[in-house]
Structures are given as structure tokens and as C-alpha cells.
């Protein structure tokens, strides 16, 4: 049977999580490889998810006063080198353009790995007075980082993202912006992607190259590994000094402004797959699913079935639901499998008997639950089913995270928690020394994901050296 | 006075059209230069115009069944070389990536100048059966062409565009697609950008590298020069053969499919500037203007003025109008100049006397006409003013094109028409020989823009050699 065949095509996640992931990426038609390693085709179904992500986030950015802009993709080597930490962080992994047509370039150009240097050059040109501040800019582009090991959505040599770059008169304004954007990311992940996230600050060793402070949202994947899902950086006036960005303040003095940057990437699609997917395929959060509900006609050759399905589709479209009617000549069983693989949140079955009874069957992709519902007021019913699908997804992901969150006070406790209950988030106190951070990684196999000061460490000792703890840190294996 | 100062900052177009263009691009804050020649910052105001263009066109593409996708930006040299004409056309002007991090690449990569080769590689991977056809794909990305001479929007080394790439079972389907997209472009230019365009076919010498036929829309700029505003190509099965794309048809035979591609670019913003702009600055078509109406308070320190302006803004927002209220402390005169420079189609002035009388003043950016209108039902009134602004812009552009369109039967007639009435579109019959095409260019200074068979050439002789004419051709100087 076609249904079985489909399911057999994916490796169960318990057997081989990495292979399960790769299988879904291919079978759900999200990605296709090209002849360049790490440069992939984002196929229409995945791109439509990205478009929905963009639409929601772009709305949030604009509501909070941000404007979109578009910088060039090329950064001259001399410009990249202006901020010392920044160039050290990025130069080893950039792609270099050395020829234009048949002529070698004088100053070779790197394909942007991130655009701080371009924004700084621009800001130096356009900012003169306090009246020119703040600038709250963002761009939706692709960037290139020449990674050695690559993985669809998680780590690719080219990826899509948005990068916000803002510049402010005061440090406090810039810090507020950094926090605001972190909160928008966290809220988006939870409300639109049904992915619970922790918000925290990165340790010194894990900061963005050139930042004073890096904040991140961290999500726990189904296999107990952490995924950094978004970052927000506070730069102080370091970049402004390196790039000689000054403005005349109200007291008529030339001073440096303060900057931030923040970004999320197509990695979010990887987070969706690994948070919500199961052994039947993808499960998409309703807010970003290209198709929120699919109508499968039952016994579609029977008189009146396709017509009634068509009318149902129109009604759902009017209710604002992204709906698809599959009236192809494939079997109903094949279609069930196909849209389970594609992660469509709600399936609607409608056949002759349902029509006679004035009903249809709604099936949740998340729980598999089947419900017979009236065709009257079906728009509202399906909307409720979509809200429930989101809530079920979030609850399931949160329960998984909680089942895999361990509070430990010693390295031994960490080791036994991970051995007994599997990988997950480890909360443990830390003295603040980089040596201890490295030692936890070496001995317990988990790295620091973020400093999470919501939990007090009063009276606690560093999990590694036993000295007084300064911070609670969330530790985990990570993507 | 601030108002005067502003106007003085732009060179009048009659004096120096190229400088007038550059002045507008800078003063209206559309573009800023970077340290890389031909790679420019598209500033928020211009990018917002592009976003509006994208939104309308993307809607038209999706209505006609197209899906968005995203290909990598890098093309391996070996892949680029697969279609002979194509590589010959593009190789001289591509940027080459030769290093990834600190290591030289084995197969150097070009930054896409266009993506036919990538789409072909992908289609070869995903198309197997007639059930897989057609694929109607599009992407919104930037491309790079290493041009020697560059000009903001018109010719830049990197530019934004959309590129549609479709693949069909039959030649007829592909031809229909090519024509459909040309018609969508033409309709968009006329209905949304208020730019009249001619639709025609390119001569052999002017075809896209690798195409069987190239169709284009051509617009006439204010200085009498032509601008190619969009192209749509029919490829036959040439690319499919070169890239070994085959499918099994219903008769179970392996055959090649047929392809098209089509694109418009940020050049459209250049077309808007040079079609509609005047000596006071930009004039934006209402459909794509980031701000459609600006409210300027008069005597804004007087009690009640700002409040009433705020209420007016809310009312216009509710009516679906993109409106801005400028309540800054600059003078009203400065604001008038500023929004004229920015090309906001409608200005609304509201002061104490207007409020008392229940009126406001509406000023058209296009005609300068001032109208006192009632504040009652103001949403509808402003919407009508926007429709009128569009119609006035289109009528003015069309009148300009008609005043600069000449029908000529000899090279002498061409020369005298251009000398007496200025540059423009020349309609003249052509025998079809490339030598004659070249000779017209050499002798009359105008190149063939497109073959325009709407006008019959029965009984006509070639404007150059005097042999029987095969086509009417539109000739012009061009950007």
C-alpha cells in the first residue's frame, strides 16, 4: 500500500536522528542539493515557510519602527579589516572574489558573511547630527560562510537571514534595542513557531566577533541537543570608533554613537523540523505552514463529492485559511501519507456519507486525533483546530524540554543525569572563569549555551572548580 | 528661504539630464555610494518602493500559478559552460570566487549573473515524468554583472531582480508563458507605475544569450531615450538538451521539455525617475509610493492643529492610505520642498482657518494643482486624488512619448526628425538583415529596440537598403 511505502522511506528518529532529519528534508521536498557543497536549493515548499516567517517578523520589525534597506553583497578586504576582533572572527570562513570578468581585482572582495562593516561605512556617510539618530535598519539577504561541515538549514555555506543594524545616541537606547529584539525573537518562536526558548547571554568565549554582549535564544531539539535560534548583539561604541562614525550632539560636541545588530536565519526551519517532526514526517506550526488545512475527498468519483469539496475550499479560503484541495487521482491513503509527510496541521476528509450527514472528519497532524464535526460554521471550527494544533505542539515541545532539563551541582551529577535521562539542558552554577567553562565541556561533553540569571546562584559553588558561583549557566550539546 | 535652497540643489533637467538624475538619486535619499564601484546602498526610501513593486508583481505571479524558490548564488565554472551561447554572453562580465577561507577552490565559482544554469541543473534532478510538469518557478534575489560603466539603478554591478524560470511539456505552452509574462510586465508598468510601454521582440543580435526569442517592454524616458524595462525569453528545448533534462511522456518516451525565463529589476526605479521626475524632484506613482499622502500642519503651534492633523492621519490610515504626518519643527515651506523632492503624490495642508471651515487643501505633486476640499469623507477624496495623480502621470508620459514618436521611411527622415524634435522612438521598416541594423545605428545613431509588428510594412522598403521590408522596427537611443 502506498501509505506504508511512504512511511518506510524515512528512517525512524530513534534509530538515527541525523538520517531521519536528512530524510525529511528530502522527502518533504524542502531542499535539493547542487554541485556546490553546502549551497542548496530551497524548494518552493520550504521557501513558502520562509516567506511566512518573513512576513510575520517583518511586520514586527516595522511596528517597532525599523526600515528595510539593502547593502551590497561585497565587502572590500580593507573595510573588513577595520575592526580587529570582527575580522579575526570572520576572515577564516569567507569566500573571496578575486576576479571581475577577466581582470584581477586590486582590493579583493569578500562575499558578506555579515554586514556590520558595510553598515558602519554607510552610517559614517549619512550620520552627522543628533537629528540623524537613531537609524533602525534591517535587511533580508543571504550571507556566505565557508564552513567545512554542512547540514541543510543548520549549517550551510550560503543561507538566508535578516540582519538588523541599529545606531543610537546613547548606550542605554542601544541596550534597550538589543533586549527588545531578543524579546521579539523569543515571542515569535513561541507564538508563531510553537518552539519554547530560553533567553540568555553568551559567555565571553561565545560572543559575536566585535560585540560587547551577545544575547541568544536557545531551543531544545527532540534529540536533546540545543539549537541557537537567534542572536542580538550590543556593540557599545566599538564599531563606531573603528569606523570613525561621529555625530554632533545637542551640546555641539562630536561624539560616537552606539550600535546593535540582531539576526535570525533559515536555521529556524531546521528548528521546526527537529522540534516538531515525527516518524511520519514534518509537522508545521499553523502560523507558518504554507498549507494549513488539506481537503481529501473520499470516494471522489461519486456524484457530488468533488463539488462539495470545492465549496468547502471556497468557504475556508474566505475564512482566511490557507487551504488546499487535493482532487488528483492518487488514492486517499497516498494523500494521507503525503500531507502527513508535508506536515499540514489539519486534514479534512469529506466523502458521500459525511455529506449526507452534514459532517466532515478533521484529523490533527499533531495528535492524530480524528473528530467528526458539522459542516456548518466550518471556517470557525477549522480555525479552532489550528489554534489547538499550535497549542498541542507547544505543550509537547515544552514537556520534552522539561523532561530533559536537569539541575546539577557537580560534574558527576551532570554525567549521571545525561547518562540516565538522555541529552538535554543542564542548569549548573559557574564561577565565570573560561578555564572552568572549557573543563565542563571537556569532562561532561556539554558546552555553555547561555548565562541564565533567572535562577539565583546565591550560596552555590562552581560546578567545576568549587569556587563561589557567579552565574547560573545552561549547558548542553549543541548544533 | 529653505524652500528655495532645496530646489537650487538639483540641476535642471534641460541643462544636464544625467546630472539631474544623479542629483535626484542623492537628494531624494534613494542611493548612497560605497567604496566598491557599481555596488550601491539601496536606502530605505528606495527599498520601500521596491518592496511595493515586489508585492504587486509577486501577487500577479502567484495568481498565475508561480511559486517562489531560492537557488544558490554561486555557479561552478563547469556548469556555466554547458550552454555555449549562454557562457559566451555572460562569462566576460562575471565576478569569480576563487578562494574559500584561505584555500583556493578547485572549480572556481561565479557569482550568478542570471540563474538559467542553476535552474537547469535543478530541473534535471527533479523532473522525471510528465506528471512533474510544468514547473513555474520564480526567485527574488540579487545578481552580479561586472560592468565597466555604472549608473544608479540603470546599470550597477549588483542589482536586485526577480527571475522567473519555467519548464513545460510543449513548445506552445512555453511560448504562451513567455507572452503571458510579457503582458503582465506591460500591464504592471502601465497600471501601477503609470509608464506606457511598447511590447516587441528583440532582433537576433539583441537576444538573450541562449534564447530562441526575447521579448521586451520598452519605455521612453523624459530625455527621449529608450529604457528596456523588462524581458521575457523563450528557450525552446536548447537548454534542456544542453543540460540533459528529459521526462517520460504519456506515450512512455523520453523527451526534452521546453523552457522560459523572464525578469524585471531595480532598473524600474530608474524608469520611474526618468519618466515622471521634474525639476523639483521625484514624482512617485501612487501604487508604489512609500508615502502616498503627507499631512503638513500649518501654524502647528496653534491650539488644536496637531490634534486635528493626528485625527486626519488616523482616518486616512483606516481608509488604507499610506499616510505620513510631518509634525517636526521644520517650517511648512521646508516640508513642502522636502516632500516634493521625495515625490509624495498628494500633499494635504491643514491649518487653523481650514479647521474652522471644515476643509483642508490638497495639492497634487503631478500638476501642482491646489484644491480646497471638505474634511468630511476625506478618505474617499484622497483616494480619488491618488487615482487622478496616477492618471495624470500616465497621460503626461504618454503625451511625451507621442510627441517624440516619428514614423520614417528613410535615413534622412530619421536624421531630420531627431534633429528637429529631439530624441525619441523612430518607427521605420527593416529588411531583417543584421548589416542594415548596424548601418542604421552607425548612420542615424539609433539602435533597434524591438520588432514591433503591430504596424504593417506591406509595400514598404527597408529604411537602410531599400529592399522589401519584413518588419517594422522601433529604433531609439537607449540606456
Uncertain segments of chain A are none
N-to-C CA distance of chain A: 37 Å
**Morphology call of chain A:** globular
Strand order of the largest sheet of chain A: 3-7-8-14-11-10-9
Total helix count of chain A?
15
C-alpha Rg of chain A, in Å? 25 Å
Task: Give the total of beta strands of chain A.
Answer: 23
Multimeric state: homodimer
Structural class of chain A: alpha+beta
Which percent range fits the helix content of chain A?
A: 25-40%
Strand content of chain A: 25-35%
Q: How is the main sheet of chain A built? A: 7 strands, mixed
Largest interface: A-B, 52 and 52 residues
Averaged pLDDT of chain A:
96
Question: Can you give a write-up of this model?
Answer:
The structure is a homodimer of 479-residue chains. By secondary structure, chain A is of the alpha+beta class. In chain A, 36% of the residues lie in helices and 26% in strands. Chain A contains 15 helices and 23 strands. Chain A has a seven-stranded mixed sheet, sandwiched between helices. A five-stranded mixed sheet of chain A has the order 16-15-17-18-19, sandwiched between helices. In chain A, strand 20, helix 14 and strand 21 form a beta-alpha-beta unit. In chain A, helix 1 packs parallel to helix 11. The first copy, chain A, is globular and about 80 Å long. The model of chain A has no long low-confidence stretch (mean pLDDT 96). At the A-B interface, strand 2, helix 3, strand 3, strand 5 and helix 6 of A face strand 2, helix 3, strand 3, strand 5 and strand 6 of B. Strand 5 of chain A pairs antiparallel with strand 5 of chain B.
Amino acid at each position: 500500500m502506498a501509505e506504508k511505502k511512504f512511511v518506510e522511506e524515512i528512517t525512524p528518529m530513534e534509530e538515527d536522528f541525523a538520517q531521519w532529519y536528512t530524510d525529511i528534508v528530502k522527502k518533504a521536498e524542502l531542499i535539493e542539493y547542487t554541485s556546490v557543497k553546502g549551497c542548496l536549493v530551497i524548494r518552493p515548499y520550504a521557501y513558502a515557510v520562509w516567506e511566512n516567517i518573513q512576513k510575520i517578523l517583518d511586520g514586527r520589525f516595522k511596528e517597532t519602527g525599523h526600515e528595510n534597506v539593502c547593502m551590497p553583497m561585497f565587502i572590500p578586504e580593507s573595510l573588513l579589516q577595520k575592526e580587529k576582533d570582527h575580522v579575526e572572527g570572520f576572515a577564516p570562513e569567507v569566500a573571496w572574489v578575486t576576479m571581475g570578468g577577466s581582470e584581477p581585482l586590486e582590493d579583493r572582495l569578500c562575499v558578506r558573511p555579515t554586514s556590520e562593516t558595510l553598515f558602519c561605512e554607510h552610517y559614517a556617510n549619512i550620520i552627522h547630527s543628533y537629528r540623524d539618530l537613531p537609524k533602525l535598519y534591517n535587511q533580508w539577504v543571504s550571507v556566505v560562510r565557508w564552513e567545512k561541515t554542512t547540514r541543510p538549514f543548520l549549517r550551510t555555506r550560503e543561507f538566508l537571514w535578516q540582519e538588523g543594524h541599529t545606531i543610537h545616541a546613547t548606550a542605554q537606547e542601544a541596550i534597550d534595542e538589543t533586549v527588545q529584539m531578543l524579546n521579539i525573537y523569543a515571542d515569535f518562536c513561541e507564538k508563531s513557531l510553537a518552539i519554547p526558548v530560553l533567553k540568555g547571554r553568551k559567555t565571553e568565549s561565545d560572543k559575536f566577533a566585535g560585540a560587547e554582549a551577545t544575547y541568544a535564544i536557545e531551543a531544545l531539539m527532540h534529540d536533546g541537543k540545543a539549537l541557537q535560534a537567534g542572536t542580538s548583539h550590543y556593540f557599545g561604541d566599538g564599531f563606531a570608533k573603528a569606523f570613525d562614525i561621529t555625530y554632533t550632539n545637542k551640546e555641539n560636541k562630536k561624539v560616537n554613537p552606539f550600535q546593535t545588530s540582531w539576526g535570525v536565519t533559515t536555521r529556524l526551519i531546521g528548528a521546526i523540523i527537529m522540534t516538531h517532526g515525527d516518524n511520519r514526517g514534518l509537522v508545521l506550526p499553523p502560523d507558518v505552514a504554507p498549507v494549513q488545512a488539506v481537503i481529501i475527498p473520499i470516494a471522489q468519483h461519486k456524484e457530488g463529492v468533488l463539488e462539495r469539496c470545492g465549496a468547502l475550499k471556497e468557504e475556508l479560503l474566505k475564512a482566511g485559511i490557507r487551504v488546499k484541495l487535493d482532487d488528483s487521482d492518487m488514492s486517499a491513503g497516498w494523500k494521507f501519507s503525503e500531507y502527513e509527510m508535508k506536515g499540514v496541521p489539519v486534514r479534512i476528509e469529506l466523502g458521500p456519507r459525511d455529506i449526507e450527514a452534514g459532517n466532515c472528519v478533521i484529523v490533527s497532524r499533531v495528535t492524530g486525533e480524528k473528530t467528526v464535526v458539522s459542516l456548518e460554521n466550518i471556517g470557525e471550527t477549522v480555525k479552532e483546530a489550528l489554534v489547538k494544533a499550535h497549542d498541542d505542539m507547544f505543550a509537547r515541545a515544552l514537556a520534552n524540554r522539561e523532561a530533559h532539563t536537569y539541575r546539577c551541582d557537580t560534574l558527576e551529577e551532570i554525567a549521571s543525569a545525561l547518562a540516565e535521562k538522555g541529552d538535554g539542558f543542564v542548569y549548573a552554577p559557574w564561577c565565570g572563569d573560561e578555564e572552568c567553562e572549557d573543563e565542563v565541556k571537556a569532562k561532561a561533553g556539554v558546552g555553555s549555551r547561555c548565562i541564565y540569571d533567572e535562577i539565583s546562584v546565591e550560596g552555590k559553588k562552581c560546578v567545576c572548580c568549587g569556587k563561589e558561583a557567579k552565574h547560573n549557566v545552561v549547558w548542553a550539546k549543541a548544533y
